[in-house]
């Protein structure tokens, strides 16, 4: 894709011009998956900036929901869900740097029905939950097993949804915390943002030596907000290229696509996630694209793009973006 | 537009098949504009279902911000802002019915620079406000006057934004309350939803005899969330066709476009606005499109569309939608 | 009560030193009660500053819940609940003034069981509601009729709660809005703050000529937050003395008791209600008690008192207070 | 104190009837303090149920703010704040048990001015923060050094506040997460609840073998909500007695005092913290005190006590309590 040549990672990545070495992070190489993202686990791989990794991700239920009779409340054992590959060490990465993760492709893996969607007790946006604690009875617990291939998500006899794969959980390690894989925060984590699919480049703050990249939670598609609490969870073969941008210090993750750059906030209530994202975007436009701060703020009020990742996880995730063409127009002024 | 023939209003409206009478609600006919939406003001027009109205809306500052030196804190007198045309009585409308408002066109009105965008003290998503009360100093007060025509919004020398007009405030009267024109709620009001533009059909709950339609607050364009607190506010000539759907009782407003139907919630915190919208959409799919409730809920988790109207008004507005083609596919099952 | 002589109203009220005229606002004088607080209803009484009024309040269900079989969903017709006495015109009151309402006494009225507590569908803090919209089933609908006298609230055979009466809803009219009696806001309204009982003085912003005082919603007792949605709702004979403080312009209601002064905020989410209350208290300490702003802020972090009124109404209510002795100590510095 | 003999820990603790061994967890024994609460750090002490520990806590700034010129933004290095003593292993403690921590006494330690209060940039309830991200300028950064002794907190020449010591941060380890010491959650952590002082008994969920108790963050006094972001932070000698209740599985911390039992929730927005606390209290009254669920819910609506810990930390903390005498009255019914 031609636009990639002018992407941030292409211009600033340490290893983008190198011929990438390709690593294979299979299930076997991974061994034990991780349920918490932090500095206390043993690396499974060490790569150089610019390398490619082919990752075998497991689905968010780690394969335990095999049929529509396998109810999550029976077959899952909390908090051991949303298994992550990694941590992957990136040579030369240090606190204050940024890791760039370009998703090259996401392919379904394993036999059909590969996809799983579930209504889980005390989970989902229209149910009482462990955090929005109510005395109301739980919604019914329901599992749907769904055929998925590279052409579609076969929801029902009548409805086929497009295959729009993306990575639900992605991040480097926090500095001293270790955070469960259900919770997004300033490190990234379980953002469940549909824009984080093939072609996108995620920029993640590095907070420990080696960055310690974690990745998992592939979705074959997801609606805005992931309202029932789960997407089409499926095992994938996800190919990423990982690079390092030295001395670019982010407070929160960012995302680049062909058309757009986006800042990502995760918080509760939901407006605070949107505030984080928009504030970071204003400051970015000021710092790197030649905007006056208030001009950026007022212009985003006219052309800002908001994407709701999830409003079901322990923190909610919002992306605030702007079309790149407005940035380039401005940068010449 | 051919899709209109299969729209909800075309199928269910009392007067859609009639040849519409066209009314002209000019500034002169309107006389005094309104700053509160309720049952206590005198109607300015009486129409039959299916009639067309050409409305001269004033901008949200009622024209008082003529230059970039006219600071809102000086030239506005609260709460007399966001002036509305109306109320318009619709014959035969009664509590429990729904009013359909099809926006046919929106044209700029008056001399350029017609558009106004402002950062107003104690207003906007990234400032302390009267409701998110802080001790932090206000952001600077800034006014931008912007040329607007039917081809574009001329933000700056380098950036031209597309002309994407929409109505910011639209509603029937509440039953007994009278609500200021800054606040959206279940009646509609100041939703600031960019999807409410030409071609769209809004469905609004009727709660008093005659419906008492109010309309105003035209925007030449607006980003998702209206982050600085204002859009490109401008005076417009807005042409609407208004119809009545008897015995269709809505709790919250809904919207139809060529591709999509959408439910609209307004509340704080922002997740509650999204909950209202998604719940209403689930129940609508169950009631009128043949979906099982839980199938609708789980499917929206895969293909639901969320649109953020504003997160700056006294209540925030979110739309939750679904592509019509998924509804029609399902309705045959 | 001796402390009253040094209260704000005693020092600043227009009519406090006058011999009060006593008015009787009986059910018969009131006639039709009000379900919305605004400038559009006809006054039932006109008083001079400093006058006393004996008010016959009806319970929040307007007497319709007579037995434990009278389910609210059957016997109530929304939005016609929480009936208010008034509006009462106060001579000389103008926008920018403050009304002081000293509650002298609250006596139970009518035959026992006078008290009513109910779990109402889609209402209460631990249930899905019309604003926190969920797909969860409603909690059971339950009515409790409770004997109440001046000595106690006879909850059950084993548990007698103290009689701690207070007024749930109190306010002057907004300037142009008319707001339903379930919703508190900057005008006051349905604050459901247990501190607003006999002995207290409420200070309410005046926004229209004559102030237009509304009062109702007596509670025989209430826990912090009114968690199930209702208190011990009962009909009362409430005696108030009403005075006028000219040119004291409040943004939000305030409260004075023997020990404490308090500022009251109403908003969602709950932290915004607390922010409003604390900010107003800081600014008050700065404006009238000789505190440096930041000293007040930091000192309240050590001795501020927070009272949760309700977190069940359309807006939640929080009071932030400080013991008067800390103010007087400071004022001599 | 006689009431202790009838406390929950006295009736159910494994070691309460034993003669306690007293351990001394001095600064020297502690060595390196901890900034994250989790299962990955090395224990500093191993005790038997019922043992007493004398703990030398450091203040939340770890002594780095020695004068009013030591601005936090200069002398602190995030995230290395709020240092904790521990982890302390308790013999026999296993996931599913509860740890009881009775605070016997809290004495000031070190030379005066021992107390520190600070306004820290991007922190506090009336400022933009890292989570409620705004473009507003920071409040001024101010440090107050305060004399503290067992009789008072000497705020200023005119105002002396009572010495009301309590522990701000207390918890067992989460199962797999390691959580920074600024954040409260279901494990406990930085709750900043003024009720957690001498005489109180905290009940904490055990989630790992040995419980791994952490304690720190002593406050000489604190107002409700800790509005500016800090209390009177000071180094203390805190004496606790720690016991183990087997097979009592809590979801969230609880607290017992002479008069009251309380459940504690931590979440954002603030109403969700209150929901967690009240729900847990309802279920506790049902499970262990013989209440019908709905009777408990409705009765708490009349007599529930809400205590606001903080609304400044990454999650806010609320306690919901009931007087024990209402429980004992009910338990005989």
Could you characterize what this model shows?
The structure is a homotetramer of 333-residue chains. Chain A has helices at residues 8-12, 27-30, 72-75, 270-288, 293-303, 324-331, and strands spanning 22-25, 36-37, 45-47, 52-57, 84-90, 98-108, 115-119, 142-148, 152-154, 161-162, 166-171, 179-180, 188-190, 201-205, 213-219, 236-245, 254-256, 260-267, 305-308, 316-323. By secondary structure, the first copy, chain A, is α+β, with helices and mostly antiparallel strands. In chain A, 15% of the residues lie in helices and 32% in strands. The two termini of chain A are 28 Å apart. Chain A folds into two domains: 2-248, Jelly Rolls (Sandwich); 260-331, Endonuclease I-creI (Roll). In chain A, a hairpin with a 3-residue loop joins strand 17 and strand 18. In chain A, helix 4 (270-288) packs across helix 5 (293-303). Chain A contains six helices and 20 strands. In chain A, the strands form four sheets. The first copy, chain A, has a nine-stranded mixed sheet. Chains in contact: A-B, A-C, A-D, B-C, B-D, C-D. Chain A binds chain C through residues 126-128, 132-139, 269, and chain C through 126-128, 132-139, 269.
């Amino acid at each position: 894709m031609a636009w990639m040549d002018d992407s941030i990672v292409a211009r600033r990545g340490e290893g983008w011009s190198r011929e990438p070495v390709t690593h294979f992070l299979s299930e076997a190489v991974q061994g034990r998956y991780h349920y918490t993202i932090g500095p206390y686990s043993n690396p499974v791989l060490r790569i150089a900036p610019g390398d490619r990794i082919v990752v075998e991700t497991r689905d968010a239920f780690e394969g335990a929901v095999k049929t529509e009779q396998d109810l999550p409340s029976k077959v899952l054992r909390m908090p051991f869900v949303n298994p992550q590959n990694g941590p992957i060490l990136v040579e030369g990465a240090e606190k204050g740097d940024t890791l760039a993760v370009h998703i090259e492709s996401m392919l379904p893996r394993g036999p059909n029905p590969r996809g799983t969607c579930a209504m889980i007790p005390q989970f989902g946006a229209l149910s009482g939950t462990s955090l929005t604690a109510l005395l109301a009875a739980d919604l019914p617990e329901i599992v749907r097993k769904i055929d998925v291939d590279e052409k579609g998500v076969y929801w029902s006899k009548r409805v086929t949804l497009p295959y729009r794969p993306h990575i639900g959980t992605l991040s480097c390690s926090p500095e001293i915390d270790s955070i469960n894989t259900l919770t997004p925060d300033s490190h990234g984590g379980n953002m469940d943002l549909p824009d984080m699919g093939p072609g996108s480049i995620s920029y993640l703050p590095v907070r420990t030596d080696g960055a310690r990249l974690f990745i998992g939670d592939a979705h074959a598609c997801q609606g805005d907000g992931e309202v029932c609490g789960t997407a089409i969870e499926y095992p994938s073969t996800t190919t990423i290229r990982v690079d390092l941008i030295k001395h670019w210090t982010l407070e929160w993750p960012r995302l680049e696509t062909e058309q757009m750059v986006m800042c990502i906030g995760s918080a509760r209530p939901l407006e605070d996630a949107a505030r984080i994202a928009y504030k970071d975007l204003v400051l970015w436009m000021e710092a790197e694209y030649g905007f006056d701060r208030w001009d950026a703020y007022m212009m985003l009020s006219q052309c800002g793009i908001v994407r709701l990742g999830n409003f079901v996880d322990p923190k909610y995730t919002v992306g605030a973006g702007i079309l790149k063409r407005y940035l380039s127009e401005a940068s010449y002024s």
